[in-house]
Amino acid sequence: MSEPLVMPVPPVKECSLQAVAVLGFSADGSALTVLNASDEYLHFWGGERDQWLGASPKLVGCDIENRKLMRKLCRALVKGEMSDGYSLYGLDKSSWPLSAHQAPMLIEWRVTAMTMPGYAQRVLVLVQRDISKRVEKEAELERLATTDMLTGLYNRARFDRLLRTELRRRHRYVRPFSLIMLDIDFFKKINDSHGHDVGDQVLAKLGQLLIQNLRKVDYCARWGGEEFMILAPETSLEQAVQLAEKIRCCVSQTRFPEAGQVTVSLGVVEARLNETQKSVMKRVDDALYTAKEQGRDRVSY
């Protein structure tokens, strides 16, 4: 084999660090070895270039998973499936920093069979990209798109999607869930008497109370204005009423900055089998209306 050419390394982009390694394989497809590697590959996995040349490649951080992938590639080689353009790809969620000074990496990888100048036989080209920052940015955009900025709770659009999902699960698996709708009593008076800044503080404080007093499995959203929605999976009507009463007591016993005592009214329903989203939302809204009609600061179901 002639001396392999030095591989051109793609320019490194902020959020898309890319590593490349050329892999060779034995005639019987029983072993894969590194023929050449870019500086970024060494950055990903540590070590010197001389240590990697002729060594088994690293596709993913987990040794067990890496061996599985090696066996998969070797089987494809033995079966003659590795024609030019054949690719195997995936996402490595098991990567960890090589030192305390490195941030964890999320690596997207692809192995492609091809013929390259400077190599006497077909090779496999391994390309790996650190997509950690990209994923973080996407997650932050998703959070911003689904979160109410004032309270930190889900927004209405996100809650709508969650409710549709839970209704489908209810129909398919006949699993119970309940809805709680709550409204701050006389919220207009708070705004009129203390100003909208104080009103916003009340909303934010209520959001914190809900987060602190709901279970981890529950979903909570600011529905609009001073209205909030709680979706309680695997929860019967009786259990949801108890949860609603706990929230009512917690709010009434809390002193809100400048606004003093604040109370809430709550409506509770359990979703019926094959019920539509429109139907269950109307019923919980009616239950809330009943609580207000009966004097506020109470739970109706």
Name of the CATH first level of the largest domain: Alpha Beta
Number of helices: 9
Strand content: 15-25%
* Average pLDDT taken over every residue: 86
What radius of gyration results from the CA coordinates? 29 Å
Task: State the helicity in percent bands.
Answer: 25-40%
Query: Could you say how many structural domains there are in total?
Result: 2
Strand order of the largest sheet: 2-1-5-4-3
User: How many β-strands, per DSSP?
Assistant: 12
The largest β sheet comes out as: 5 strands, antiparallel
* Global shape: elongated
Give the H and E element order: EEHHHEEEHHEHHEEHEEEHE
CATH architecture of the largest domain: 2-Layer Sandwich
CATH topology of the largest domain: Alpha-Beta Plaits
CATH superfamily of the largest domain: Reverse transcriptase/Diguanylate cyclase domain
How does the helix and strand content classify structurally? Answer: alpha+beta
* Alpha carbon gap, first and last residue: 80 Å
Uncertain runs: 1-16
Protein traits:
2 domains; five-stranded antiparallel sheet; disordered N terminus; 301 residues; alpha+beta; Beta-Lactamase; five-stranded mixed sheet; elongated; Alpha-Beta Plaits
